[in-house]
Please model this.
Amino acid sequence: MSKKAKAVKTKKKAWLLGLGLDAKDGHTRITTGENFKLVGGSEETHGSMQEKAVKVNEQLKRRGKTLETVDHEEFYEIADKVGMPLLDAQRARQRN
Model:
């Protein structure tokens, strides 16, 4: 590996993944945003995921942060504020 290759730093990239499992209408729904990917779900579920992803981004922008720069505690706070259920929701509740 060259010195130049070693000097290149890998930038940390964070993104949200939304996975909906309740689609029964045969549609494949995929939405990709600046820092999120949403896959599947019924029309209602997918729309809800889109709304929450946008709200998370709005909250981050208001705070002058990105997913890469926000700490865990603040992310849990934002997710709770926008009504986003997390896989680690129990852990988030224990912290509060």
User: Anything to note?
Assistant: The chain has a mean pLDDT of 87.
